[in-house]
Write a structure and sequence with these properties.
49% helix; single chain; 6 strands; 3 domains; three-stranded antiparallel β-sheet; hpI Integrase, Chain A; 8% strand; 14 helices; extended; mainly alpha; DNA polymerase, domain 1
């Protein structure tokens, strides 16, 4: 029979396994949570669906170290980012807890605390960042479910609202873009113009090689990007499947590219950009240099090379390109991503739309009237 006992500040759940052994799991904040867990375990035992004995008391930290972490199939830098998030925000809260003991209320309380957390920058954590932390915790629970370490995902009970966009995209004007380019040494000015004219992601620009430029058809083939881990040149894969694409480039950019090659040559592996020593120009160095140039021009602290991508998309929209074209150009996985980011830039004048509809109807009705008269 399942029962509960108190151990210090926490409660432990006890139940009998099918083999007649006594199993125990601690770390529950309330007696009711421990009772509910013990009853669920006994029910699972009766149905033959309980977790393996070795996993009964597995903590979140043990699970992350032994199962979740080794199972990640991502770029090295992405894995480092995941580890930083886990170590900073998830492990201090849940690391010592048995993974099966965590309840929806535990997660909700954690999210509330995150909202009141002041980051090292002196600012509160942004809602979008809190959602990012929650997504990572959810990913840990999903893998735990897949490995039958837990049989219920506490994240499934969490009601989440999509955070409102914290800042709308404001495109750069040509004067600012020229000032950015002028701020770089001549060998690096091309990064600004590639960013503006193509809307490529920063890592795609830094990983662009000369053989990916088709001057006959004025097209760029985007099928790789610079690795951020510092050990390799190219990443294993791009951000999404739609990131693999071909986009056009203008005659003006073509002239700038040819002038750049004539003046500065190419880097290793045919890279268009290179550092002072002629080696790979790494993302962290390019990003730091961009921010150093951009801050005196009025850029916010968090704004970097990606602003050129935003500006390219914004200008394309202003010139009349539709959302589907923008999605394909930028390599977004879904058109929803395009609309979430740039939707406010598309025309929203309903009165103008109504007037166009009215003009269309009048034109068609008049055409029908004339056809009847000629019949």
């Amino acid at each position: 029979m399942a029962y509960v006992r108190k151990r210090g500040k926490f409660f432990s759940a006890r139940w009998r396994t099918r083999q007649g052994l006594q199993a125990e799991k601690g770390g529950f904040a309330t007696k009711r949570e421990a009772e509910q867990f013990a009853e669920e375990q006994e029910a699972l035992e009766r149905r033959g669906k309980n977790t393996r004995p070795s996993q009964v008391n597995m903590t979140v930290r043990e699970f992350v170290q032994e199962i979740w972490g080794p199972s990640l199939d991502v770029e090295t830098q992405t894995k480092i980012d995941y580890e930083n998030i886990y170590n900073s925000h998830i492990d201090p809260e849940f690391g010592h807890r048995p993974i099966a003991s965590i309840t929806p209320s535990d997660i909700q309380k954690w999210r509330v605390r995150l909202k009141n957390t002041v980051a090292t920058t002196g600012y509160r954590l942004k809602p979008s960042y809190i959602e990012k932390l929650t997504n990572q915790l959810g990913a840990i629970f999903r893998v735990a479910m897949d490995n039958e370490v837990i049989h219920k995902n506490p994240m499934s009970k969490i009601k989440r609202r999509k955070p409102k966009s914290e800042k709308r995209i404001v495109p750069l004007n040509m004067q600012t873009i020229q000032a950015l380019a002028n701020g770089f040494a001549p060998r690096w000015q091309i990064v600004v113009w590639i960013g503006f004219f193509t809307g490529m992601r920063p890592s795609e620009i830094l990983g662009l090689t000369w053989d990916r430029l088709d001057f006959d058809n004025q097209e760029i083939t985007i099928d790789r990007q610079l690795s951020r881990d510092g050990q390799r040149v190219f990443a294993d894969h791009l951000k999404t499947t739609k990131s693999y694409r071909k986009i056009p480039f203008s005659p003006y950019l073509q002239r700038l590219l040819l002038e750049h090659k004539a003046a500065h040559g190419l880097g290793p592996h045919g890279l268009i950009l290179q550092n002072r020593s002629g080696n790979v120009w790494r993302y962290k160095d390019a990003s730091a240099m961009f921010r150093l140039i951009a801050r005196p021009l009025g850029f916010d602290k968090g704004e970097g090379l990606h602003q050129l991508r935003h500006t390219c998309a914004s200008v394309l929209i202003k010139l009349g390109n539709n959302a589907k074209q923008i999605q394909e150009w930028l390599g977004h996985e879904s058109i929803l991503e395009t609309m979430d980011t740039y939707g406010h830039l598309f025309p929203h004048d309903l009165h103008e739309a109504s007037e166009r509809l009215d003009a269309y109807a009048i034109e068609q009705l008049e055409l029908q009237r004339q056809q009847k008269m000629l019949a």
